[in-house]
Amino acid sequence: MVVAGILSYPKPSAALSYGTAGFRARAELLDSTLYRMGLLAVLRSRSRGGLAVGLMVTASHNGPLDNGIKLVDVEGGMLATAWEEDATRLANAPDDQAEHVLAAIAARRGAAGGDGEVAGGAAPPRAAVFVARDTRTHSARLAAIALEAVGVLEGRGVDMGVLTTPQLHHIVRHHNGPLAAGERLPHPPTLYTTSSATTTDLSLQESTSLAHPPSTPHREHLPRPPTLYTTSSATTTDLSLQESTSLAHPPSTPHREHLPRPPTLYTTSSATTTDLSLQESTSLAHPPSTPHREHLSHPPILCTTSSATTTDLSLQESTSLTHPPSTPHREHVGPREWASEEGYYEMLTRAYATLVPPAARSSDRGPLWIDAACGVGAPKLLAMQEALLALGLRVHVANGVGDGELNSGCGAEHVQKARLPPRGFEARLAGFDRACSLDGDADRLVYHYWTESNEWKLLDGDKIAALFSCFLMEQLAAAKLDKPLRVACVQTAYANGAAGAYIRGLGMEVPMAKTGVKFLHHEALHFDLAVYFEANGHGTILFSDAAVSALLQTQADAEAQGDAPRAAAARCLLATKQLINQAVGDAISDFLLVEAVLCLRGWGVSQWDALYSDLPSRQTKLPVAERAAIATTADETRVTTPPALQPELDALMARFARGRCFVRPSGTEDVVRVYAEAATQAEADELALLTAQATH
Ligand code: NG1
Ligand code: ZN
């Protein structure tokens, strides 16, 4: 069965690699990868005692001709790093060897079936793989291929339909939450019990060319209304082909192409990650067979600041007191009732209601104009629209599915890299004083607005991080914890210099991480409480269990002492933790927190923007055949190879007031990226150009 399946989806000649953000390539190259990743997902689930894993079919902000896969690990974060190599090896194995590669992975990872064979899935634990997809035309067909593979290994494939990437992370996290800490997996699970015989497979309704029809066993589907899928055309970059081109030119024979042209705009890809290394170690430390659940040290808190008196269910799972701050971990997961799309909306709207009590809900706040990049964020925002309206938050969803080409002329990547307003917001729109843009799978967010003097201004991931940072510091000061928390805001070299200076001024540490959210997430886990954001708008805030425990204790103490402001601050921070996605950056939960903070402060977007003034900056990229010819220090701010380059860049920086520049090889494209900032835009542009010239 497995061999037949592998052979029916032959591997393309292009090399495929599990990059920072999973696999990404032209959709027509991905059948074999989807099939094989469906198989791999089963092994990953088995290796964690049958806990669910997620498989997201998306190419994030790439053009509509691309697609891809992001695998979601059992704690709701990205696939553990060690498995990324297995994924790449399996995806690239020749067709006649793929089964052996799969068997080797299964044996090494303790994920073989009962008879020692990969396919012996009848032996416990039975794998569970939740497959979701974005709105691309080919996503349904590709998702069906993954589900077919899951069925072939007798795993339980669940068709989650169309979701944002962070929604799938959320569902996996909450589905497994208590289980990941040691509870036995119930059979059947509470929420996903529909049978393939009686439900409609929407993905197959969309499919016309699937080689393997719905007879595939073990597929379970969640009933949901059909979603619209639109086709569109685009010019996209085939990263996998770039990879194979670059392989033809090893580092010893540099074959770099030079940039005889002005700076180009970025077209890279995004990632949703979590601390992969910690997931691994957590999993080793707390295997399903050795329950490691600690008991609730506090009753569930009642958040009573608002009319919406809500129970913070996520804290019912609180398990943290025995874990010292030096080993932050993430076991405060909400109840399994939240392990669904509806549960996601419920959790977020409750948290928002707690954070923004009715008294703070000003009726004269204008609506937020949301650019959904013509992607999956649009239907999901529409699903929340009414509930948000009831909380005093008016949103207008623009650039929905079918309104134009996905991620083209709209969306977070376009807005942040091109520094241009999205389609539909090219000029001041009457009635809208602020707007935001999501990317194609709704894990990135940037804000923007038109000033009174008709200047369009961008508030990027750095500005969001600054807003969150000052809000957290203000609330922490009011909560007066017995023992101060270590609080940080993690940035990359792309963070605007003014942002770092502002955040440091708040009294926070500002560690630097390599580009790519999994690196930021990993760094953030070293702190009790950490904001992390990439300038491109991907980020979140992580609360360690130590922080949650301290806040619960503070709230209880303050209430006992009748110290209402202190109790309210602790409660506010706990509600923030409930609102902000603890697994990955999430455009929907991020915009809700931005809106909550603005509302609480009575701020308009211009007051937020005024927290600090961005230093003018410019990004560009140099297409190269061999990006590895450039190597940098670990923080990516200085070039180590070729050795003569950094002294040249140092000399250039010295020529400009507040000049800073760096170059680094992209992790997702065959380009070298150039970043420059300086006191004026003209100088930043000039420094970028000189840096590019020095580099090629
Ligand atoms: P590369 O291509 O390595 O620069 C890009 C983004 C990252 C991250 C990854 C994930 C920039 C400058 N780079 O990485 O932030 O989103 O894609 O795919 O935005
Ligand atoms: Zn994305």
Q: Could you provide a short overview of the structure?
A:
The protein has 696 residues and is an alpha/beta fold.
Describe the structure.
Strand 7 and strand 8 form a beta hairpin. The chain contains 21 helices and 21 strands. By secondary structure, it is of the alpha/beta class. The protein has a 6-stranded mixed sheet, sandwiched between helices. A 5-stranded mixed sheet has the order 10-9-11-12-13. Bound molecules: 2-acetamido-2-deoxy-1-O-phosphono-alpha-D-galactopyranose and zinc ion (ZN). Zinc ion binds next to loops.
What are the main properties of this structure?
696 residues; alpha/beta; six-stranded mixed β-sheet; five-stranded mixed β-sheet; binds 2-acetamido-2-deoxy-1-O-phosphono-alpha-D-galactopyranose; binds zinc ion
The radius of gyration is 24 Å
Q: Spell out which ligands are present.
A: 2-acetamido-2-deoxy-1-O-phosphono-alpha-D-galactopyranose, zinc ion
Overall average pLDDT: 80
Strand portion: 5-15%
The total of beta strands comes to 21
Strand order of the largest sheet: 1-3-2-4-5-6
Sheet of most strands: 6 strands, mixed
C-alpha end-to-end distance: 51 Å
Would you identify the regions where 5 or more consecutive residues have pLDDT less than 50? Answer: 181-331
Shape: globular
Helix segment count? 21
Outline the fold blueprint:
Blueprint: H1 2-8, E1 23-26, H2 31-47, E2 52-57, E3 66-72, H3 81-92, H4 98-108, E4 128-133, H5 139-152, E5 156-162, H6 165-180, H7 202-206, E6 219-221, H8 239-247, H9 276-285, E7 302-303, E8 310-311, H10 341-355, E9 368-371, H11 377-390, E10 395-398, H12 411-418, E11 435-438, E12 445-450, E13 456-459, H13 461-479, E14 487-490, H14 497-505, H15 517-524, E15 529-533, E16 539-543, H16 545-560, H17 564-579, H18 587-601, H19 605-609, E17 617-623, E18 631-632, E19 639-641, H20 645-654, E20 660-665, E21 671-677, H21 681-695
Helix pairs in contact: 2-3, 2-4, 2-5, 3-4, 10-17, 13-14, 13-17, 16-17, 20-21
The protein binds 2-acetamido-2-deoxy-1-O-phosphono-alpha-D-galactopyranose and zinc ion (ZN).
